[in-house]
Design a protein that fits this description.
It catalyses: sn-glycerol 3-phosphate + NADP(+) = dihydroxyacetone phosphate + NADPH + H(+); sn-glycerol 3-phosphate + NAD(+) = dihydroxyacetone phosphate + NADH + H(+). The chain is of the alpha/beta class. It is built from 16 helices and eight strands. It has two domains: 178 residues, NAD(P)-binding Rossmann-like Domain (Rossmann fold); 154 residues, N-(1-d-carboxylethyl)-l-norvaline Dehydrogenase, domain 2. An eight-stranded mixed β-sheet has the order 3-2-1-4-5-6-7-8, with helices on both faces. Bound molecules: nicotinamide-adenine-dinucleotide and SN-glycerol-3-phosphate (G3P).
Length: 341
């Protein structure tokens, strides 16, 4: 059994801690809130993020990062992408041995356009990390915490590390596949959040299922286009961390990205949306990163481009729709530009 330091005690860090604890692992769940840590340690609840879910007593909460890492043999990072560098910058001061790093966050960093595994590699010296892996797929914390059937993918450049992650998490309600395509898994998980904001927006504007299906399908096409340019395998985008996660995020009431888009479609401002949400909406920063990256790589991403203008340049949501619908005529399959394997 492992001793896992889970860094990030929001919805997803807490839900994954339940999976790990169910599998017999000792969990040190680190977060910044003293009040939350006391609630977890004394009453075994994290009600701010997972209402009414009793946590196993083998989950121990910490607010001291060094203490949470003390005798850990595995690190699971689940903070929002924007917090990743700060947390890694602090934690490397407390490590004196190489540990496997796993992350479960979904984002791309604006400016650098780094995937999270690349941020880990930049921030943590090689002698302090034995491997870097990601776990990603259609998985809302609210359902995982209730132990509802969930499937997910683990990926690493090191096949043994991907298998380690599979064994670490696999339970009879949490099924883990492996996939060696680290780029595709991270890109699919990050970019589906952009499309989910768009799907929510169509709902807020009063459109129905046709618009949602259109956005999901054409969204997947542009995610795959960028992914292929970056070196991903096209098959990954048909898998759990691609299509699977796109479906769940564009259709679930649990999705923060979908809900944010829905509010924008109803006419709320981005500030109002963020105030109301109180949880991370990764798709917003990722839209900026993907917009920049697509420009740099010369990849056509029309949905990402109009959403970037809505989120960062006050384009109205209605204007965004007419811009997308009024694009020049295209051939569907040629437009996908997926080269044969
Ligand atoms: N919620 C889900 O169902 C789900 C599923 C899969 C992946 N994810 C991904 O997991 C990541 C975390 O999402 P979440 O749902 O847990 O978010 P959340 O909003 O529920 O919680 C975020 C947590 O991060 C903490 N945090 C913020 N800034 C921090 C910092 N600088 N240092 C330390 N902690 C900080 C917050 O205090 C909070 O505890 C995101 O990348 C998200 O896309 C979420
Ligand atoms: O609630 P969201 O929109 O951040 O999505 C959560 C997960 O990524 C779904 O797999």
């Amino acid at each position: 059994m492992s001793k896992v330091a889970v860094l990030g005690s929001g919805s997803w860090g807490t839900a994954l801690s339940i999976v790990l604890a169910d599998n017999g692992h000792d969990v040190r769940l680190w977060g910044r809130s003293q009040k939350q840590a006391e609630e977890i340690n004394q009453h075994h609840y994290n009600n701010q993020y997972l209402t009414d879910v009793k946590l196993p007593s083998s989950i121990v909460a910490y607010t001291d990062l060094e203490a949470s890492l003390h005798d850990a043999d595995t690190i699971l990072l689940v903070v929002p992408t924007k917090a990743m560098r700060d947390v890694l910058g602090e934690l490397r001061n407390y490590l004196d041995r190489p540990l496997p790093f796993i992350h479960a966050s979904k984002g791309i960093e604006p400016g650098t356009h780094f995937r999270i595994s690349e941020i880990i590699e930049e921030e943590v010296p090689q002698h302090l990390r034995s491997s870097v892996a990601v776990i990603s797929g259609p998985s809302h914390a609210e359902e995982v915490a209730l132990r509802q059937p969930t499937t997910i993918t683990s990926s690493s450049l090191n096949p043994e590390a991907a298998k380690y992650v599979q064994d670490l998490f696999m339970t009879n309600h949490f099924r883990v596949y492996t996939n060696p395509d680290l780029i595709g898994v991270e890109i699919g998980g990050a970019l589906k959040n952009i499309i989910a904001i768009g799907a929510g927006m169509t709902n807020g504007l009063g459109f129905g299922d046709n618009a949602k299906a259109a956005l999901m399908t054409r969204g997947l096409a542009e995610i795959a286009r960028l992914g292929l340019k970056l070196g991903a395998s096209p098959l990954t985008f048909a898998g759990l961390s691609g299509l699977g996660d796109l479906i769940v995020t564009c259709t679930s009431v649990h999705s923060r990205n979908w809900r944010a888009g829905n509010m924008l479609g109803k006419g709320k401002s981005i500030d109002e949306v963020l105030n109301e949400m109180g949880m991370v909406v990764e798709g917003i920063r990722t839209t900026k990163a993907a917009y920049e990256l697509a420009k740099k790589e010369k990849v056509e991403m029309p949905i990402t481009n109009v959403l970037y203008d809505v989120l960062f340049h006050d384009k109205s949501t209605k204007e965004a729709v007419s811009e997308l619908m009024g694009r020049v005529k295209k051939h569907e399959v040629e437009d996908l530009k997926i080269d044969p394997l």
